[in-house]
């Protein structure tokens, strides 16, 4: 039941809004403190080595070492082979895509099923909605998440509302939009954005972000199967960096279910995508240096998120790439409810990209609100 | 014995100067500038026209000064781009770098036909335009390397360079075209006889907002020249595979269009003069398609040979290179000499080397300036950094 957590214990360093005691500050990974050369892969990516169990059923079968883009290719390959109506389209997908996610698919399945579109994101998504409305499975690729904004109107006004406005007569549930997401360190303004918060405000679509190849394949297949339009953001920094043994056969990881990666009792750390690996490292460091037991949760589905997993927190630290103001924190906070906020809620946003800056116009609001909570 | 005595005697008689006199003299050739013609007339390719009765002239006059100036500018841009390539491979330039070599005739030709008070906006392949619009090479290279001496103070990078009456430098494909129409509206509104050149590529020509802009510009008769730099490939996609109609100059439908050979600087100059005249006379917008070619790939992370053959690139280099075309014209018509052009090359190389030296040694912008210029504010405000204990000041 929400709110029924362990008795409140406030580890002193985490409470303070003033510059923290040197122990915590200096024990942060040093690259995070020293700009302007932020690290690209400073965090370890521990591959999943235990047998994959989904709903307590182990996923058997042959596995293959794959990185993130290869696991995406595998998922798309499975889809195209099983679903004769599936088509993949986007800018430059025919030769394999700028991140090699669709390599070999055109040769295997033909140019009618894997084809390039001209440079028109609004057109791509609108076209995808049309394909999906007829019942075919449409997998649209937007070349970078930063370019998704011309298609924003189509996603929010058309795709998300189709089922509702037609009284369930029509829907574009078989539409999945994939886009490389998140910062890489050298992306600048237009190859680094994390726009999931814009879509988190829109009922009718699902927003999913995996943290690893194993998660990516299962979640992408679930998105494609799901009867609602889904946006699948792929952390581009992990395309080559994350490598795991991934089953070759299809398997499905349920959407809207967060995963607790590490149990803990003092504070809950919530993240998604690349940041999950950072907070796992932070959790280990907090345990070693501060004796703080952290619960690490990978949210996976941003919308609709797993309210049960997250609502049991008492003290939560949420961690994400996107700008601070009205980041994905706000709807999460709103759903948790005021009685669970007895404690301190921190938002920790870590930017790995130079030019992602935050306008903290409501930082003072947060500080005031939090002070009110304590008093 | 006698021969030795004779030799000694002759040496004595010649005097001390004999030792200093060189055995052979080198005659230094003196250049006589009167040998050069002051101008020459050239036939240029006729432009294809859409909804126009007459087009730009088929002959162009090139004076010696103009020729040398164009040559020097194009060579500077070419060497600057090659230097950027080198610096990128040395990882001194990071991020994105879209190089303009091969297309120099476009920017130099355009600049030759317009006034410095006219306005120009383009997409991300902007280094050439940044130079022709007045940014010194050292500032361009410093911007690429992210130093504070750069034209955008090191915060913009390759795609975001700005100068007087040059509005960038825009990353999102096609997004700059409606902006260009807006600038043209301002030109018309202020009544200063200025026009706006709005450039985009063959890939962007398929964006919806371009067509929206055509409509607005034609409806309100804005003094806007839409210029499509058709370099045959939108990143990795050839124009045939991306566009139902590759006649980009006709895509404006009700807007008149010209198709121009973008590798010939005189062709570009004459066509732009014609188009500028069309806009300034109040007839409304006009569309120009410049058929050009880029030697490098789309950006530095694209080798540029997976979607086109090396032979094709070589063929264009040998047959239609803009600098070679101009050089041949000048040499064949006695507008210049090989030595003079070589001297210009040496000068240009020196300038680029110095600029590269500056770009690699200038300090980076200080971390305090990371969050400047987010908003224009009266009092500076604080911006939260990656954690709540790291704060940056934002000064407008």
| Main sheet overview of chain B | 6 strands, mixed
Taking all Cα atoms into account, the compactness measure Rg of chain A is 21 Å
Adjacency order of strands in the biggest sheet of chain B: 2-9-10-6-5-4
Note the gap between the termini of chain B. 95 Å
Quaternary structure of the protein: heterodimer
Largest interface: A-B, 42 and 44 residues
Describe this structure in words.
The complex is a heterodimer of chains A (375) and B (396). By secondary structure, chain A is α/β, with parallel strands linked by helices. Chain A has helices spanning 12-15, 22-27, 30-33, 68-82, 105-109, 121-133, 152-159, 162-165, 196-200, 213-225, 238-241, 275-290, 307-311, 329-336, 363-374, and strands spanning 53-54, 57-58, 63-67, 87-90, 114-116, 138-141, 175-181, 206-208, 230-235, 243-247, 259-262, 267-271, 294-298, 301-303, 316-320, 345-349. Helices cover 33% and strands 18% of the residues of chain A. In chain A, strand 1 and strand 2 form a beta hairpin. Chain A is globular, with a radius of gyration of 21 Å. The relative contact order of chain A is 0.15. Residues 1-41 and 337-375 of chain A have low confidence and may be disordered. Chain B is an alpha/beta fold. In chain B, 40% of the residues lie in helices and 13% in strands. In chain B, the strands form 4 sheets. Chain B has a 6-stranded mixed beta sheet, sandwiched between helices. In chain B, strands 1-3 form a two-stranded antiparallel sheet. In chain B, helix 10 links the parallel strand 9 and strand 10 (286-291).
